[in-house]
Amino acid sequence: MNVTITAVLDPSDDTHWPLEYHPSQFDSRDAASAHFEREARHSQEYEAGEILTICTSDDSWRVVIQ
Fold first, then answer.
1. Fewer CB under 10 Å: which end of the chain, C or N?
2. pLDDT tens digit string along 23-43?
3. pTM over 0.85
4. Which of left, alpha, beta for 44 (phi over 0: left; psi -120 to 50: alpha)?
């Protein structure tokens, strides 16, 4: 199932990530989750346990930063 990401929300204040720096198409929700969790972890702006919200046009889910 192909997934198109429309927004990624920051855990601290629900601001949107600038998606022009990230792919928007993924093969699955798991692939999208892994990408954005890894990016958040490597950015060093987020603490382990914080939660990102990933959105598509008709769905959203949360990812815990490890």
1. N
2. 999 999 999 999 999 999 998
3. yes
4. left
